[in-house]
Each structure stands twice: as C-alpha cells, then as structure tokens.
Amino acid sequence: GLDNTNKIIAIQGGVPSTYAAGLARAYKGGGYTDWYLPSKDELANLYAMKLLGFGGFTNNYYWSSTEGGNDGAWAQDFGNGSQFNAFKELTTVYVRAIRAF
User: Fold this and answer.
1) Cα–Cα dist 82/62, whole Å
2) Collapsing DSSP states into helix, strand and coil, what is residue 1?
3) Which of 100, 101, 98 minimizes the C-alpha distance to 27?
4) Predicted confidence band at 62 (pLDDT cuts at 50, 70, 90)?
5) What average pLDDT does the segment 79-86 reach?
6) Burial (CB count within 10 angstroms: exposed 0-12, middle 13-18, buried 19+), residue 14
7) What is the rounded CA–CA span in Å between residue 90 and residue 72?
8) Euclidean distance between CA atoms 30 and 78, whole angstroms
9) Within 13 Å, how many C-alpha atoms sit on residue 48's CB side?
C-alpha cells in the first residue's frame, strides 16, 4: 500500500483532498505523518479484523491503493467482504488511512 500510495501521489499531484491516496497521506491522526492508502490485501486483513470487532468500520465500500485498470482501483465491501474493481468516476467509496508500526 505504501509504494502504491507514493506512486499515485507522484502521478496525481495536485490538491491531496481530491483523491483517496492524497487524503490518506494528508491524514495526521495521532500526530503521525506516515499514513497511506492500504493495498487490497491490507484491506482484506482489515476486514478480517472488523469481523473480530476491531476498527470501527461501517458497512460501506473502502478504496484500496491497488490499481484496477486505467480508470479504477480495487475496493472492498466491508458489509460482505467482497473485493471489486471500482471506477473512480462512478462510485462513492470511503477512505481509511493506515500506517505500519
């Protein structure tokens, strides 16, 4: 996820609040500045943690940093656990920043 986030930001540039990777990177929760947009595999792990009662996730879709083609990225449904290619222009999806520790 971290490498993907860095690549997305290098390509997108601009105002970080206009795209998911930029929002994740701009997050300053807990005073930390090393947040990033999770990969689809990291989101799958977060979904497993949600099933155990952790994370405060809603039953909505969350963006990953994993590319899903030229005009989309993978997303995870935190209602049922499925992953799918979500098109940027067509889908409203939540952003959840993570960090390594």
Assistant:
1) 11
2) coil
3) 98
4) very high
5) 92
6) exposed
7) 9
8) 24
9) 6
